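Standup notes
- DV: blocked on the single-chain target, sequence here:
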Amino acid sequence: MIPEATTAARLSSGRLGVAILLPLVLLAGILFTIVRFGPMEMLRDPDAPPVELLSVQRTLLKPEGIVLTVLNESPEPVTIAQVVVDDAFWQFTADGPLNVGRLGSVTLTIPYPWVTAEAHHIAILTSTGTKFEHEIAVALKSPKADRRYLFAFTAIGIYVGVIPVALGLLWFPVIRRLGRDGLDVVLAFTIGLLLFLLLDASAEGIESSASLPGAYQGIALLVASAAIAYLALELLRAWLSQRRSRLRAEGPPPGALLSLLIAIGIGLHNLGEGLAIGAAFALGEAAFGTLLIIGFTLHNATEGLAIIAPMAKERPSLWTLVKLGIVGGAPTILGAWLGGLVNSRALTVLFLGLGVGAIAQVVVQILRQMGRQQPLSERLVHLPVALGLIGGFAVMYVTGMLVG
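- DV (later): unblocked, structure below
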């Protein structure tokens, strides 16, 4: 015999499942009815031309010609009919059907004899006669993923990210000799650094979002990735704290935990910097790319200080410092690879959003630590602490001018 309580529980579970699924099934039916039998067709003018929108997502210049990756942002399929380069019609080949569905893409190879360092104007014509224009400002051969370019981008990532962060870690003996007031000044200085990085990454993310196709919802992608990074670091912090409580003294001390979170946040931001450098060289802007390398190198020298500040009263091993330096600086290498060899605007927005969320979480965590022994509102208005906060922001602002 099955107990009555068990039978009732099964019945209630079944009813709960029906209650959850029934609204979803009805909603799906309503959407099908709207699409299949709705009044939109009656309102649509049969003589109106279809809405068409194409955008060039990537341009490669190869010995065999110009290679374009074209995305269809239109609500309906679009057929590519002709390609015009510098006011002349050219034959082309495609890696797929020329009738491109919504959010579909096709790669066009145009055997055009492009000229190094010159500008070229391209127009893509659809079957309805709509023209979409694209300009190559300076024609330079696109890099390919061979050993030489991988080595070059790796070296750039080491110069820009790993070495400057490691140099900042060398200030650890000085940080250890500071008292509580001095440590609060350093933490405030760290907050100033991170606040600048937060604003900088947010501005870059908004700018990059504007260049994305509308279907990608650039701002939504930026905000969502920032929220994911923030929540992920909060979960990581909570998990590491619980693990330390279970293992007692065997887990990472609070200062080392906060330093790890700071290193992760800075690493995600440096990944965005690597994207910018790699993309500049991929687009042939070598002079601008060199300026970015110099500026970011100076810019990142203070990031090591931000990483080690929470561990001022602890005795981390040399290996711990090395690991923190790798976490904070090595993502620059990956960013340079992606920026130089992939050059995806959507990835740029995604990683910038991750950097924004990670840095925001770290700032909140440092403020929590500073407010444990004294109300934060009182601590931040203490003159040395306030000057440290302003000084951190000012240092990043001045070094950032070399990049802008």
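- Follow-up: The chain has two domains: 54-136, 147-400.
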